[in-house]
Amino acid sequence: MKFPPPSTIGVLGGGQLGRMLALEARRAGHRVAIFTDEPHGCPAGQYSDVEINAPYSDTDALSRFLQQVDVVTAEFENIPASCLAAVEAVKPLRPGAKALITTQHREREKNFLRDQGIACAPFRVIDDLAGLEAAVAELGRPCVIKTAAFGYDGKGQCKVTAETDLAQAWSSFTGQRAVVEQWVSFVCEVSVVGARSISGQMATHGCVENQHTHHILDVTISPARVDPQITEQALALWKAVAEGLDYVGTMAVEMFVTTDGKVIVNEIAPRPHNSGHYTIDACRTNQFQQQQRAVCGLPLGDASQHTPAVMVNLLGDVWPAPLTHPDWSPVLNHPGAKLHLYGKREARPRRKMGHFTVLGDTIDAALRDALEIRKALGIG
Q1: 146 is in an annotated binding site
Q2: pLDDT greater than 80 at residue 17
Q3: Which SUPFAM superfamilies does the protein's record reference (predicted)?
Q4: Annotation-wise, does 284 bind a ligand?
Q5: Residue 68 annotated as binding?
Q6: What percent of the chain has pLDDT over 90?
Q7: Residue 10: helix, strand or coil by DSSP?
């Protein structure tokens, strides 16, 4: 079913991804309704026509939300399964509950990748210390323990080295299921952001190179500085994931490029992604416009990139005080730099507050200028 303007898009979640989706949806003539457990005036709510603030378990509030929308999407994956089921029972949910439930849980996600024959690191699922000991004996050291559910930006992870005491490492995971992954020796991290429509049409933004600090995305370089065969592998993996999930909407797949020239999947994000924010300024159709089109059953746009670009995240660490913005002159004075702030009232360390993107004639020029601006802002 198609939902052209002025249909109302319902969004589960109130963060910056919902905010940027709302901006594009309203620009395209849609109304936007937000359902979130965040306080009133959240980043997405600031640009929505309707904002309902309630726990995801509040069935009455959810019913009021559903009465006001035509189609629903999610701006982050960790929505309770009961809420997703309640939505899908009465309104089209894109992507569907199956895709969201699979990707919000590492065990289900890893099993999906294995069952689909999609390359990922060898892993074992555990729920006690004995299981950890057996997994480490099989996979070797180093390896990584990750919580099975609700992990992001490096949270819920522990690296196991030759010196690690397994009982001590497991103490922070006790009572949870976890995934133990074999350590991957990689030369760089890349991702592909793209969209798939209800008809199966697919459009990807290409392969980008990502640099992380403290497990949080710091810099995205697009296009990635990798061999063409690496890009081909990455695009093929994205398409395999999208088809395997029967996905509808914008999706990111994060990947490792290994030391032997292979590409393997690290994580799936069933939504627009931080590493795709450069598309707002550097692509003919950005990731949020693609989400709006796919969710509404409309044809996807041209996802190609028109200008080399580098995106840098702005975390709360840059703010001199929680309510005091830094001097943005280094960004604003650069003719090829674009500043994007997310409307969050209070800055905290490692909280994503915004980003800037630098466009350049070449990727080297864009990266040079982006790093100079980054340094001038006191990042790093």
Answers
A1: yes
A2: yes
A3: Glutathione synthetase ATP-binding domain-like (SSF56059), PreATP-grasp domain (SSF52440), Rudiment single hybrid motif (SSF51246)
A4: no
A5: no
A6: 97
A7: strand
277 is in an annotated binding site: no
12 contacts 74 by C-beta, under 8 angstroms? yes
Residue 151 annotated as part of some ligand binding site: yes
Q: Looking at this protein, which amino acid is placed at residue 304? A: S
Contact between 283 and 118 (Cβ < 8 Å): no
Whether 77 has a binding-site annotation, put simply, is: no
Residue that has been written with the tokens 């937000």 in this structure? 34
Q: Please, is 157 exposed, middle or buried when counting C-beta atoms within 10 Å of its C-beta (0-12, 13-18, 19+)?
A: middle
Predicted TM-score (pTM) of this structure: 0.97
pLDDT tens across 158-185, in order? 999 999 999 999 998 988 999 999 999 9
Find out whether 155 is annotated in a ligand binding site. Answer: yes
Q: Which of 189, 182, 330 is nearest to 254 (CA)?
A: 189
Do the annotations mark residue 115 as ligand-binding? no
Residue 274 among known ligand-binding residues: no
The two beta strands, 352-359 and 337-341, are antiparallel
Task: List the domains of the chain with CATH numbers.
Answer: 8-94 (3.40.50.20), 122-182 (3.30.1490.20), 186-377 (3.30.470.20)
Is 338 annotated to bind a ligand? Reply is no
pLDDT above 70: residue 375: yes
Q: Is 182 annotated as a binding residue?
A: yes
Q: Six-digit token pair at 155?
A: 């949270």
Q: Is 264 helix (H, G, I), strand (E, B) or coil?
A: strand
Residue 157 labeled ligand binder? yes
pLDDT at residue 153, rounded to an integer: 66
Is 243 marked within a binding site? Answer: no
- Closest Cα partner for 267 from 275, 256, 279? 256
